[in-house]
From TrEMBL:
It comes from the Bacteria. Keywords: Lyase, Metal-binding, Zinc. PANTHER family: CENP-V_GFA DOMAIN-CONTAINING PROTEIN-RELATED, GFA DOMAIN-CONTAINING PROTEIN. SUPFAM superfamilies: Mss4-like. The keyword Lyase applies. Residues 13-123 form the CENP-V/GFA domain. The keyword Lyase applies. PROSITE patterns: CENP_V_GFA. The lineage of its organism: Bacteria, Pseudomonadati, Pseudomonadota, Alphaproteobacteria, Hyphomicrobiales. InterPro entries: CENP-V/GFA, Mss4-like_sf. This is Aldehyde-activating protein. Belongs to the Gfa family. It comes from Acuticoccus sediminis.
Amino acid sequence: MPAMTAASAPATRTARCGCGALSATAKGEPAIVAMCSCTACQRRTGAPFGTLAWWDAADVAVTGTAQRYARVSERGRTIAYEFCPTCGSALVFRGEHLPGKVGIAIGGFADPAFPAPTVAVWDTTRHHWLDAIAAIPRLAEQRS
Ligand SMILES: [Zn+2]
Ligand SMILES: [Zn+2]
């Protein structure tokens, strides 16, 4: 892994939804970066797993109009997320399992240099091919 430099690890990062109406700015480095393969994250994202970075709530500022959806986890704890009512991107998360913290969807930063997850949860429903992802043929871009 290459060494991180000050230039590639900014003190402030801003994530936004697909249309730009909802954004979240976080100060400092995230306390937790997690990928989650639970079926709720799979259905929410349409992807095999969700990825969230968590900061202290005091270090996150949310701007724009959001709609809120809350669900109760398998452990009986509420997790709520805020999504853009125009484009549907889920951006900001608050959960009883991490009191005082705010999660931001990593994809919202659109930053390929964002810190990698430090933990992967819900291994029981992890897609089998994730262990072989490096072997999948890659294209620099898709031009179709
Ligand atoms: Zn939007
Ligand atoms: Zn999940």
